[in-house]
Design goal:
Enzyme class: lyase
Shape: globular
CATH topology of the largest domain: 2-enoyl-CoA Hydratase, Chain A, domain 1
Radius of gyration: 19 Å
Distance between the termini: 34 Å
Number of strands: 11
EC number: 4.2.1.17
CATH architecture of the largest domain: Alpha-Beta Complex
Catalytic activity: a 4-saturated-(3S)-3-hydroxyacyl-CoA = a (3E)-enoyl-CoA + H2O; a (3S)-3-hydroxyacyl-CoA = a (2E)-enoyl-CoA + H2O
Number of domains: 2
CATH class of the largest domain: Alpha Beta
Protein name: enoyl-CoA hydratase
Order of helices and strands: EEEHEEHEEHEEHHEHEHHHH
Structural class: alpha/beta
GO molecular function: enoyl-CoA hydratase activity
Strand content: 15-25%
């Protein structure tokens, strides 16, 4: 079993995907640095399984996805594996599409340690928060390869950076640098090279200390209300509040504050 320096014991590792826990935070590391952490069919399936397992694990309250090395977070699908005549074409990045379309309940942070191109950028779009290395670059170069950014780029990028900026990236295929991505709102936080994962872990730990039910409902409400008319959005928010206020944690939070002690969340 691989163990990341400074982390707890690895809970799973298959060579190309490393999995480790740091208290209530699970870290998934794409480990193909020789191929810029590009996603193959097998790796895509394993990453999807790992995300599902983390989401179902009551011990896990936040997830961090990163890549090995400092050159790349993820270069997207492995182009060497793509063959237009093969039924395997594109399967390696389907996990990206699923993550962007169906967003799991547990908060996911992308720790972008290098370039995020194609499906790698789309994987990042499927995450809730992004911590980026200051040297990272971001691109959707599919048009340069006769392909489409159909794993989320065409749909979700404009939600994050606006239509004009999304079109610039989609139509030119040219990369933008980390300061520009930060200015556009594509990433939340910039970190010095070599400190990306540590910064993402600190952010994840803050999330993990909060009431899990409140965190999950807050995440769900933000995404579910995004495309609703305002009246429906308010109604959905009220329904979430009505459910949460009946929970034990809604009693425990104010009680712990009054008693000046850390809350003990029961997730009930």
């Amino acid at each position: 079993m691989h163990q990341l320096k400074g982390f707890g014991p690895a809970v799973g590792a298959d060579g190309e995907l490393l999995v480790s826990d740091h208290e209530h935070v699970r870290v998934l590391t794409i480990n193909r640095p020789h191929a810029l952490n590009a996603i193959t069919t097998v790796l895509g399936d394993r990453l999807g399984d790992a995300l599902s397992a983390a989401d179902a694990d009551p011990h896990v309250r936040a997830i961090v996805i990163t890549g090995s090395g400092e050159r790349a977070f993820c270069a997207g699908g492995d182009l060497k594996e793509i063959d237009a005549s093969s039924t395997r074409s594109g399967r390696g990045v389907r996990v990206v599409t699923r993550l962007v379309q169906q967003r799991i309940a547990t908060p996911v942070i992308a720790a972008v340690n290098g370039l995020a191109y194609g499906g790698g950028l789309e994987l990042m779009l499927g995450c809730d928060l992004v911590v980026s290395a200051s040297h990272a670059r971001f691109a959707l170069p599919e048009v340069k390869r006769g392909l489409l950014a159909s794993g989320g780029g065409l749909v979700r990028l404009q939600d994050v950076v606006g239509q004009r900026r999304a079109l610039q990236m989609l139509l030119t295929g040219e990369p933008i640098d980390a300061p520009t991505a930060h200015e556009w709102g594509l990433v939340n936080t910039l970190a010095p090279q070599g400190e990306v994962l540590a910064t993402a872990l600190r952010l994840a730990s803050i999330i993990a200390e909060n009431a899990p039910l409140s965190v999950r409902m807050s995440k769900a409400a933000v995404y579910e209300t995004a495309r609703l008319p305002e009246a429906e959005a308010w109604a959905l928010t009220a329904s979430y509040h009505a459910r949460l206020i009946k929970s034990d944690d809604a009693v425990e939070g104010p009680r712990a504050f009054a008693e000046k002690r850390p809350p003990r969340w029961s997730e009930r």
